Amino acid sequence: MNLKPEIEAEVTILPPEMNSRKGAIRDDIVGYFECSIELPNGTWDCRIVFPDANGRVELGQTTMALIQFLNPKEALSCLNTGNTFQLMGGNGIIANGKVAKLIATPINPIKNELRLEFTGSAREYFRIWAVNLCLTLLTAGIFSAWAKVRKKRYFYSHTILNGTPFQYLGQPLPILRGRIIGVTLFAVYYVSRHFLTSFLPYFLALGVMIAPWVVVRSASFNARYSAFRNLTFKFTGSYRDTYKVVYAWGIIPVLIAGTIFNWWNISWLMSIVYVLAALMFPWWFNHLKRFIVGHTEYGGVKGALFSTGWQFFKIYFRAGLLLIVIMIFVYIQLYQLNLTGTSRFSFIFLNLPAYLGYVLAYAYVQAQISNVVWNGATLWPVSFRSTLLGRTMAMYYLTNALAIIVSAGLLTPWAVIRTMKYRAENLRVLMAGELTDFSGSDMSPVSAAGAEIGEFFDMDLSL
Amino acid sequence: MSDATMTIEGIYFDGRKPVGLPILLSVLGKEVTLTVAGTASVYRTSQLKVTPRIGSADRFISIPDGGQVQCADHPCLDLLTSDSPTEGPVAWLEGRVWVAVCCLLLIAFLILTAYVFGLPAAADWAVRKVSLETERSLGRDAFAWLDNKRWFLPTELDETTKSRIRTTFSTLVRGLKFERDYRLEFRRSKRMGANAVALPGGIIVITDDMVSLAESDDEIAAVLAHEIGHIELRHAMKEVMEGSVLAVIAGVVTNDASSYTVAVAGLPALLAETKYSRTCESEADEFAFQLLKRHHISPAAFASLMEKLSKSDDDDERYASFLSTHPVTADRVKRARQASGEK
């Protein structure tokens, strides 16, 4: 894994009449695109990212952009602040640019590879878990807000990077307030699902309306109340942009509304719609992840996620393939059973490979998505390396399940802690600079001490 | 606390750069002296806010200037103002092994009590609160859905058979609590095989396969009586109620387990539900036996049909599904035979 140094530059995308990449560039560019950069020492592949305004740029106007190099060493060695360059794409020039700032020193080896340590112990967490569970049951759920804070606090304070633990700043009362709202909404949903079925579509439509709001609020809450070394994280996504990302320009609400109100009663049409939605999902997911990481800040530094929908598609495709293979296997066995007419006991043994396959597919998706997201994320000059393995995760899940069943639940804390340890062990933090590169950005020192004065409406809506 | 000075070493973060400096905290009475890089500043204990104790982790002290001190846990940190006062007692409880043991015993007691007494009683109470109209509309919706999704196909029975079964049915329901709500429907179903279903609100559906499997009208009456039992005892609503409460409790209890395993979370709820639905089945059986006897039909008909179902299950897949929801046990057959014996 190599770091991805980038330069910040003023870039002018040429208007369509002068642009040689006609058709490829639409009136507005969202996110990033790949092209090459012409420099005195050669032509290099690069990726141009527009971090502001959700990546929307007007053609012909000068916009700040980040240029990221795929082979940084050579490419960056002849660039300096003030240099001009041209971006090539298709078969000619697509944009002119001027280097505003080298975000990383051009040749920037990784100075430090830091391990993330998880120092929680099953013995200690067992006591917290027992108290949380008992008081939650005794108080009919009210204590669950405290339980959540204690649990998060425990996990954060025992996750140590470079000698300093992370800090969870959430307070029980705002979380309780959020939970009451969440539970009320859930109760309305449950009643309408079981008793007032005619009301359900309208309730779901309402849910569709407020979902992006929930995304923004919970991302802000999680960021604002997580801190490291007395600097909090921050989420800067706006509602408008979230609506656009979550709803993929209105396609998803139409799909949902169509399903709710039974617009496509023709079954083949519905199948096509579902297949299309499923195929679209990895790209939509990629958009959402990039949006969230790209709007998360720490110490005045904005995060960026370099991932593609294709990467996510491959993960889901392989997992789907695995499930299909296992299903075929089970069906063949079932068919043979029917022919020979063996007893019902062999039927149970068929469920075992199906369950194992499901666990493996699930663990694979979990591990690989974590890897793609962490490996593609940068918080310059910090980047990450995640090395989770699907089959190892599956082993953890299976042994956890077994231990929990055999111990009637008593080994749950042990299972939690060992899984956390495995996850932490497989995440490295790569430093290309010093931590001093993060400044409270003089303009906006967001200190952890002031975080409690959070806005009244900062609620956690997770159930 | 004594007046002796206590000194704690820590790391100071100014809130502007994520870089730490060594710091010394000296607590003397109500005064705290902080020494960073040779400079000392004095605060009152009430001005410094400390994060609650959690496990053996380091704690953080917020200083009015926006800075923060990270230091190992120390008893004298409790002299400072707490950042989250309500968590103090919780932290105290978490620190003690005997508390954890008591908690576990209490949890086991609570779950067992709720499972054996609390939940069925609460469900009974809740069912009485739900209006019959709600239940009826629920049943109608479910029936329309089953028809729509082609779980049910139009029946192929001839009119004579149908009217004969209808007569049996109306004799059985005469004088019952929900007499006016009962409706008998005939359907053919490939997916459900030989089956009979009681939907909430009084709709009872019997499949063609079931009619052809039963050799006598008494056997059909036995199946119908069993389904009537489900309706008369309002089992559908009860199961919905119990299911919802169970889902919530199981969600709370397995909250942690679910994210670190796969498919374990549903297990306790599933086991409990199976037990509750088995209780419902035997209640409906008891009801059916009484009802049959009142109409001078021997419960033995029920036993013989059950045996036929379990036998046909081995060689014909069509009959398997009634059994998956209505498990045949030697016990059930035996009870039916007993009921027919006693007069």
What are the key terms here?
heterodimer, A: 463 residues, alpha+beta, eleven-stranded antiparallel beta sheet, globular, disordered C terminus, B: 343 residues
Write structural notes for this entry:
The complex is a heterodimer of chains A (463) and B (343). Chain A has 463 residues and is an alpha+beta fold. In chain A, 49% of the residues lie in helices and 21% in strands. In chain A, the strands form three sheets. An eleven-stranded antiparallel beta sheet of chain A has the order 15-14-13-12-11-10-9-19-18-17-16. In chain A, strands 1-6-4-3-7-8 form a six-stranded antiparallel beta barrel. In chain A, strands 2-5 form a two-stranded antiparallel sheet. With 343 residues, chain B is α+β, with helices and mostly antiparallel strands. In chain B, the strands form two sheets. Chain B has an eight-stranded mixed beta sheet with strand order 4-3-2-1-7-6-5-8, with no helix packed on it. A four-stranded mixed beta sheet of chain B has the order 9-10-12-11, with helices on both faces. In chain B, strand 1 and strand 2 (20-28) form a beta hairpin. Chain B starts with 5 loop residues before the first strand and ends with a helix. Mean pLDDT of chain B is 79; it is low at 315-321. Classes of the chains: A alpha+beta (463), B alpha+beta (343).
| Number of contiguous helices of chain A | 12
Share of helix among residues of chain B?
40-55%
> Percent of residues of chain A in helical segments?
40-55%
| Major pleated sheet of chain A | 11 strands, antiparallel
Estimated share of beta-strand residues of chain B: 15-25%
- Which pair of protein chains has the largest interface, and what are the residue counts? A-B, 75 and 64 residues
N-to-C terminal Cα separation of chain B, in Å? Answer: 82 Å
Poorly predicted ranges of chain B (pLDDT <50, ≥5 residues)?
A: 315-321
Largest sheet report of chain B: 8 strands, mixed
Question: Numbering strands along the chain, what is their spatial order in the largest sheet of chain A?
Answer: 15-14-13-12-11-10-9-19-18-17-16
**Whole-number radius of gyration of chain B?**
33 Å
N→C terminal distance of chain A = 37 Å
Radius of gyration of chain A: 25 Å
Which structural class matches the secondary elements of chain A? alpha+beta
Helical element count of chain B? Answer: 12
- Bulk shape of chain B: rod-shaped
Q: Encode the helix/strand succession of chain B as letters.
A: EEEEEEEEHHHEHEEEHHHHHHHH
pLDDT averaged residue by residue of chain B? 79
Shape of chain A: globular
